[in-house]
Design goal:
Layout (H helix, E strand, L loop, with lengths): L1 E4 L7 E4 L7 E6 L8 E2 L2 E2 L3 H4 L2 E6 L8 H19 L1
Antiparallel strand pairs: 1-2, 3-6, 4-5
Amino acid sequence: MATRIGSDLKNMTRVYLCQQEQIQEIAWGGNPEKPVEFHDGKLGISPRRSFAKWIEKRVGYSCPWDNRSRLLLLKLRELLSGTVYG
């Protein structure tokens, strides 16, 4: 989450708050890396196997901020705005 305190460029302060990375597992219907199957030189379609469950690990992202944290951070911004530039 990021916020800017102050309106002019000379007295502007930026505050960045980050959360820890949260590795998530997402289940998909079908692996995009699955090779194409050929039978007797013709493209074969096997829908039951082509849509087998495939798990993707999403790395490098955090969970969304919950409402309580967002409200606290908005209050922090309000307090910092009043203290630093008030």
